[in-house]
Amino acid sequence: MTLNKNVKLFLTISSIMMALAIAIGAFGAHGLKSIVSESLLTTYNTGVEYHFYNTLGLFAACFIMYLKPNSKKVVVASWLILIGMIIFSFSLYLLVILNLPILGAITPIGGTLLIIAWILLSISIYKD
Predict the structure, then answer these.
(1) 19-62 pLDDT tens trace
(2) N or C, which end of the chain has less CB nearby within 10 Å?
(3) How confident is the model over 63-112, as pLDDT tens digits?
């Protein structure tokens, strides 16, 4: 089985993002639990959950990319998933760790990109 450049890239990125999700989740469970409020820990865990879910989704997008190697929409959707996940989850991580509530203002940008990405992926599956 030969993987094209984009599939290799996104499988590598997905693997790294999953390792990060595990490490960041463990840090929250063990390192932050005793130093932040329950409310902030819930916020942090929301970032971890979305990080995990969308990393699994990025793996699925790699599978679709493999099946549809000429679909530019799948590649664009994958980039949007990655960027949206980073903006959404990492803004929540930094909001909690740095105690900067203003970062919550950019979290919806990441969420919006994720919504657009998943709609674009569904369009590419149906139309291409």
Answers:
(1) 999 999 999 999 998 899 999 999 999 999 999 999 999 999 99
(2) N
(3) 999 999 999 999 999 999 999 999 999 999 999 999 999 999 999 999 99
- Distance CA(95)–CA(44), nearest Å, equals 8
Vertex 9: Cα angle to 46 and 128 (nearest 5): 85
Phi-psi region of 99 (alpha: psi -120 to 50; beta: other; left: phi over 0): left
List Cβ neighbours of 86 (8 Å cut-off, separation of 6 or more). 110
Asked whether 36 and 44 are in contact (CB, 8 A), the reply is: yes
| Distance in angstroms (rounded) separating the CA atoms of residues 101 and 41 | 13
Q: Domain segments of the chain: what residues?
A: 5-127
Distance CA 23, CA 72 (A): 32
Count the Cβ atoms, other than its own, within 10 Å of residue 79. 16
- Look up the pTM and report it: 0.94
